[in-house]
Amino acid sequence: MYEIILAIHNIIRWIALLLLVVVVVRSFIGWFSKREWSETDRKLGKFTTITLDVQLLLGLLLYIFFSSTTKAAFQDFGAAMQVNDLRYFAVDHALLMLLAFFFAHLGSALPKRVENSNVKFRRAAIWFTLALLLILAGMPWARPLLPGI
Hints:
The protein is mainly α. The chain has one domain. The chain is 81% helix and 0% strand. The chain has helices at residues 2-33, 39-66, 68-75, 77-80, 84-109, 117-138. α2 crosses α3, α2 runs antiparallel to α5 (84-109) and α3 (68-75) crosses α5 (84-109).
């Protein structure tokens, strides 16, 4: 079960990353070109956060139930903090991804609270960019690009 969930989590990270890049680029273009906020902009933000919701769920399943790495880390948390790989997955990755999750949700929710399209794009650009940067910082780049490769 661990391998299946990890493979799905691994594949969806690329979808989430692609969606985030698209949303960030569209947000900055909309902000600086002063175009009108569209239904497509709203839907892209929504699809991005839904993808991150799925990632969070899969990540929590791995973190709490299936990962031997986090199980080992929680056996002796103090000692685990001295081992880079254990600390990374037990603390660093989890914290950065949770923050990115919340920032992306702010990027989707805050534009709804204003009428002005320029402000909508600015809010989306800021919060989705922060989410993207955190995901790039917290992504396990040493893992294979796709499962089995």
